[in-house]
Amino acid sequence: MMAAAQPETIFEIKRSSIYFCRKAKERIQLGKGFFGVVFKGHYKGEKVAVKIVQDGSMNPQDFLNEAQIMRTMEHPNIIKLLAVCTKKEPIYIITELMKKGSLLEYLKKNRQTLDISHQIEMAVQVACGMDYLENNLYIHRDLAARNVLVGENVYKVADFGLARVLIKAPSDSPNSQYYRVIEGVCLPIRWTAPDAIVSNRFTIKNDVWSFGILLYEIMTFGMEPYANIKNNNKLIKRVTGGYRMPCPRDCPENMYQIMSACWMMQENDRPLFESLHTMLSDLQ
Ligand code: ADP
Ligand code: MG
């Protein structure tokens, strides 16, 4: 008799199969963010990042369903989801390790050595990853420099889909000031298109708006968007009324035109990621 077919990959894994790297007995922390704490580890002989999600911030079953879709996304500019632990809280999310951490920190740390050709390269690669998600009808919902990770000359989009399954905003985490819960949905206000905030309806065109904000972050080496408008409600009013951020210092006019196109009021007037990718590649 033939043996039953083995599942291709074991996706839900035992916690004990993850090894946490340690220094002086302490787990090595890669970062702390909105979704929880991220540690360095090993899984099946591979270096990985293990995100430990704060209890109560997601429904494990909803997350597992979403993770089944996330795992099918494979592209050089998309973070690979390797495995999950969802049977008990806290939820573990195991992804490939990205040596240089988040793009936001990378931009801030390396502004002296980065030049426009690096900035265009970052934009091209993120657009390429997002073009792939767009083609696969997958909406990110939380595209921002904090959610792009950096490796050796490679930039990958991370944390896609997580905002959709978030049920509670962890309050004491860094970056929590950027998120607001509106009608049960957690929104990064400064990265979200005004129409999506108002209607609570998300399309890839909201991701395109967020991509424009991400271009702004790239061109300013990680400045906070709309830094001069502290109050979020005031910000929503201003942006709905047509206010847009001015061209950053030293940002080429053609790059500013691309980010401005992402911020068109009507979502149908915003470009597709496919054409953003082409337009940005033309700047190289
Ligand atoms: P946020 O998106 O709010 O910054 P995250 O929980 O997604 O929070 O991640 C926290 C930090 O951990 C990131 O800013 C980054 O520095 C680090 N990090 C997350 N995932 C990885 C990874 N796969 N490889 C390396 N570092 C990571
Ligand atoms: Mg993140």
TrEMBL record:
<dbReference type="InterPro" id="IPR020635">
    <property type="entry name" value="Tyr_kinase_cat_dom"/>
</dbReference>
<feature type="binding site">
    <location>
        <position position="146"/>
    </location>
    <ligand>
        <name>ATP</name>
    </ligand>
</feature>
<keyword id="KW-0808">Transferase</keyword>
<dbReference type="GO" id="GO:0004714">
    <property type="term" value="F:transmembrane receptor protein tyrosine kinase activity"/>
</dbReference>
<keyword id="KW-0547">Nucleotide-binding</keyword>
<dbReference type="Pfam" id="PF07714">
    <property type="entry name" value="PK_Tyr_Ser-Thr"/>
</dbReference>
<dbReference type="GO" id="GO:0043235">
    <property type="term" value="C:receptor complex"/>
</dbReference>
<dbReference type="InterPro" id="IPR000719">
    <property type="entry name" value="Prot_kinase_dom"/>
</dbReference>
<dbReference type="InterPro" id="IPR001245">
    <property type="entry name" value="Ser-Thr/Tyr_kinase_cat_dom"/>
</dbReference>
<dbReference type="InterPro" id="IPR008266">
    <property type="entry name" value="Tyr_kinase_AS"/>
</dbReference>
<protein>
    <submittedName>
        <fullName>Tyrosine-protein kinase SRK3</fullName>
    </submittedName>
</protein>
<dbReference type="GO" id="GO:0007169">
    <property type="term" value="P:cell surface receptor protein tyrosine kinase signaling pathway"/>
</dbReference>
<dbReference type="InterPro" id="IPR011009">
    <property type="entry name" value="Kinase-like_dom_sf"/>
</dbReference>
<dbReference type="GO" id="GO:0004715">
    <property type="term" value="F:non-membrane spanning protein tyrosine kinase activity"/>
</dbReference>
<feature type="binding site">
    <location>
        <position position="159"/>
    </location>
    <ligand>
        <name>Mg(2+)</name>
    </ligand>
</feature>
<keyword id="KW-0829">Tyrosine-protein kinase</keyword>
<feature type="binding site">
    <location>
        <position position="147"/>
    </location>
    <ligand>
        <name>Mg(2+)</name>
    </ligand>
</feature>
<keyword id="KW-0418">Kinase</keyword>
<feature type="binding site">
    <location>
        <position position="51"/>
    </location>
    <ligand>
        <name>ATP</name>
    </ligand>
</feature>
<feature type="domain" description="Protein kinase">
    <location>
        <begin position="24"/>
        <end position="280"/>
    </location>
</feature>
<feature type="active site" description="Proton acceptor">
    <location>
        <position position="142"/>
    </location>
</feature>
<dbReference type="GO" id="GO:0046872">
    <property type="term" value="F:metal ion binding"/>
</dbReference>
<dbReference type="InterPro" id="IPR017441">
    <property type="entry name" value="Protein_kinase_ATP_BS"/>
</dbReference>
<dbReference type="InterPro" id="IPR050122">
    <property type="entry name" value="RTK"/>
</dbReference>
<dbReference type="GO" id="GO:0005524">
    <property type="term" value="F:ATP binding"/>
</dbReference>
<dbReference type="GO" id="GO:0005886">
    <property type="term" value="C:plasma membrane"/>
</dbReference>
<keyword id="KW-0479">Metal-binding</keyword>
<keyword id="KW-0675">Receptor</keyword>
<keyword id="KW-0067">ATP-binding</keyword>
<keyword id="KW-0460">Magnesium</keyword>
